[in-house]
Specification:
The chain has helices spanning 3-14, 26-43, 47-52, 60-68, 86-92, 95-105, 109-127, 131-147, 169-174, 271-307, 314-338, 345-370, 372-375, 380-391, 398-408; strands spanning 153-156, 180-183, 187-198, 205-211, 221-227, 233-238, 249-260, 264-265. The chain is of the alpha+beta class and 422 residues long.
Length: 422
């Protein structure tokens, strides 16, 4: 056989074998397989119960088991007792952690959000490069995880009168911010309230953003760590959500809460920049949450089609081909955004917006395809439909993502000098 024939034979025989857009380190792929097995074996059997009893009981047992395999600490650098490396964070961004979240989302996006919201609560401390805060709070998280009594984190920016507008530069300057921190000797007095805070009712460590000057508004925004048990801090209403019900979203109330100056993350007035950096970093993984649920919906749709003897029909094949092509395209964008660090605002917005829109479209199509079976309460496709809708709303609505894209994309915003992107 000639060299040409050997090369052609190789190309023909290997064209069906593809890999993910990037080669994963062996330990990451091993962890992903471990999480996939754990989710299918231990979370999938109780998913319906988690959804039904969400307001009655928080799944601490799942959190404890997740802590045992590093889901609460893998993002934390080894300097603070975690399983991650700071250099890997700069090299790979949130990709490795986001892939784990994707595996959880294929089974239950609500459980994925418990761990994802925890990571989000940690991000301001990590991204601030405030090593004093890191030693104090990140080490505390790792110690608690090892002890078998894990502590969760949460991220709090949304207020009753400042939702997605607090995640957009123009909107934030006009937003009615009601949470303020007044500096005293050695501490800050925090007053106000936050709402729709994922993990808010169960978190021990909450990164809260508050203005220190009513006249300056977001320009005085500062990040503080509020700890459960502080006098004046309480949990208000816990929302009864349509989807992702395993992860509670709560109202947080601050009434003359004395927050020590040592609990300030970064410098005073750095909160707005830190908030934008945090959101640009956290938005792409939301795309993986959405796509994880969409992949699960397609799998259930294919099982239904096979059961009904429909898979040989060309029209049915086209329906699923269209959905799967969109998922593959969206997943490539999300992968690229998650592995880009420092994050790029327009790319992060694209990943979150495009992936969640695709996932919503896919879940809707699967429900349509399955008809009566698809809309039954308790059906996994019906649940995926409800779960995915939230990914179009939190971390900034997709309308806000389009504004973020328009503000940042080279050539679209006149403030940016146009250059060749492609």
């Amino acid at each position: 056989m000639s060299l040409r024939d050997k090369l052609l034979n190789f190309l023909y025989t290997h064209r069906g074998f593809i890999k993910d857009p990037c080669r994963l380190p062996r330990h990451v792929e091993k962890k992903r397989q471990e999480v996939r097995h754990w989710a299918e074996e231990e979370i999938l059997p109780v998913v319906e119960e988690l959804d039904r009893r969400a307001k009655e009981e928080f799944p601490w047992e799942i959190v404890r088991k997740g802590a045992e395999i590093g889901l609460l600490t893998d993002l934390i650098p080894r300097t603070f007792g975690g399983g991650g490396r700071l250099l890997d964070f700069f090299r790979h961004g949130t990709l490795h952690g986001a892939l784990i979240i994707e595996e959880l989302s294929k089974v239950c996006p609500g459980v994925a959000v418990i761990f994802g919201a925890h990571m989000l609560g940690l991000l301001p401390i990590l991204l601030s490069m405030d090593f004093k805060a890191g030693r104090r709070f990140l080490s505390r998280v790792t110690d608690a995880a090892r002890s078998g009594k894990p502590e969760l984190c949460a991220f709090a920016i949304t207020e009753p009168a400042a939702g997605s507008d607090a995640e957009d530069t123009h909107g934030a300057r006009r937003a009615k911010l009601l949470t303020y921190a007044k500096k005293k000797d050695g501490y800050y007095v925090l007053n106000g309230r936050k709402c729709f805070i994922s993990n808010g009712s169960v978190a021990s460590i909450i990164t809260v953003f508050a203005a220190t000057d009513k006249e300056k508004g977001i320009d005085s925004w500062t990040c503080f760590v509020v700890e459960r048990g502080m006098k004046g801090f309480s949990v208000g209403r816990i929302e009864d959500k349509m989807g992702q019900r395993a992860s509670p979203a709560a109202e947080l109330i601050f009434e003359d809460v004395k927050v020590p100056s040592a609990n300030r993350v970064g410098r005073e007035g750095e909160g707005w920049k830190l908030n934008l950096l945090t959101l640009d970093t956290s938005r792409p993984p939301v795309g993986f949450i959405a796509l994880g649920a969409a992949q699960h919906a397609v799998r259930k749709g294919l099982e239904y089609a096979e059961k009904e003897g429909l898979l040989r029909d060309r029209h049915v094949q086209h329906i699923f081909a269209d959905m799967l092509m969109k998922i593959e395209a969206a997943r490539t964008v999300v992968w690229r955004a998650c592995s880009t660090f420092p994050p790029v605002s327009w790319l992060s917005a694209t990943a979150k917006c495009f992936a969640s829109d695709v996932a919503m479209d896919v879940c809707s199509r699967v429900v349509d395809f399955m008809g009566d079976e698809g809309v039954k309460v308790g059906n996994e496709v019906e649940k995926a439909f409800r779960d995915v809708k939230l990914t179009q709303i939190y971390e900034g609505t997709n309308q806000i993502q389009r504004l973020s894209f328009a503000e940042d994309y080279p050539g679209l915003n006149r403030k940016n000098k146009p250059f060749r992107v492609f």
